[in-house]
Amino acid sequence: MMRTIPALAGSLTMALCMAAPAAQAHHSFAMFDQAQTTVFRGTIKDFQWSNPHAVIWVINEAKPGATPDVWTIELTSPGNLTRMGWTRHALAVGDKVNVEINPLRDGQHGGSLKKVTVLATGQVLTSSLIIPGKP
Amino acid sequence: MKGAIRTSLLATAVLLTGGSALAAGDPADRPPTAQEWSALASLPDWSGVWTPDIEDQFAKAHTNAPAWTPKVDAEMKAMAADEKAGNPHGIFLNCLPEGMPSWMLVSHNALEFLFTPGRVTLLGESDGSRLRRIYTDGRTHSPDPDPSFHGESIGHWEGDTLVVDTIAVLPETYIATGEGLGVPNDGALHVVERIHLTAPDTLHDDLEITDPKVLAAPWRTTRIYYRHRGRKNEIVEGVCLQGSFNEAVDPQGHAMFAPVAQDNGNVVPSPK
């Protein structure tokens, strides 16, 4: 399993986003189930730092014998993420991560990011619709 | 149609005869004086970047919902049920400006205020064209303003409170309580705002929204904003349509934006 993922990540980097679920527009986050949390380990396939929502595509570590899936994970805007301590270099293609998301309600492989941990460095980054700063 | 032609002719007559709204001495026709530039220093300090209180917005959707007309109330209940079921209507999916009053009410993004003589300008972080001009030079509303997403806003200062009167908002622009909950204003919208500091870094926009086509009574509500300073909080460019494209490489090897299929079945069309 662990051998498969880097090889797949390399080939997918060439065909950027071709296999990823559809991206996003300026939508409500009600499509994500805020009452549910899904946690999994995976590899960053791509990180798009763009408005209105930044997006991470993560290749989920599959169970032995299964095909790894690509998950589309949405964040708030780059402006709001910057206020939370992110930069466009916060994640790199190939990073091994642990992600915590509110999943899509319809069961597709996507969600809104709550927390991502970069396993190599231990760095933890969070995303929320609630912007810190209330006095 | 006849009515529209009459209005148009009237407006033309006002233009040709130098009607009262455009009489000599219109503040729009002259440059600001040195005194007017100096007077800006006596206005309240609204510098910095302001982010909305999203939690308060979510709470108010339940505690201070608008009094919709019965027809719209039924539509909104259906939309709310769809949103609760995870199928939000996505009223801003097209990335057109949220417009008035929704920008002030439901945006999740930051804004800033610019003071220049005779004008307060609001700049937002999402939508490439998100900008409001509030004229404070003493003018009255135009006789027949072209409808726009943000309408025609005329303001004046009452002490440290900016009072703003807005008309001529495009009828397709939403009155919204959330990014998946709202109804077009249908062309009868009038918004009066009182924008003021309530604490050193807290700003309130008290809105009174009147729209007999969709509201059974004027809706009075408040949006709360908090001030931030420092480079990491500065407004950045936010082009909503960028999200409709992926970063890719064209056959010649150039960087390009490649259109992507929109959303994944979680968004249902707005009702007709």
Please describe what this structure looks like.
- The complex is a heterodimer of chains A (135) and B (272).
- Chain A has 135 residues and is α+β, with helices and mostly antiparallel strands.
- Chain A has a single domain (4-16, 34-126), classed as OB fold (Dihydrolipoamide Acetyltransferase, E2P).
- Chain A is built from 2 helices and 6 strands.
- The N and C termini of chain A lie far apart (48 Å).
- In chain A, 44% of the residues are buried.
- Chain B is of the alpha+beta class and 272 residues long.
- Chain B has a domain at 42-229: Lipocalin (Beta Barrel).
- Helix content of chain B is 19%, strand content 31%.
- A 9-stranded mixed beta sheet of chain B has the order 1-11-10-9-6-5-4-3-2. Chain B has a two-stranded antiparallel sheet with strand order 7-8.
- Chain B is globular, with a radius of gyration of 21 Å.
- Chains A and B meet through helix 2 of A and strand 12 of B.
Please summarize what this structure is.
Chain A is of the alpha+beta class. Chain A has helices at 4-14, 78-83, and strands at residues 38-48, 55-60, 70-74, 96-103, 110-118, 124-126.
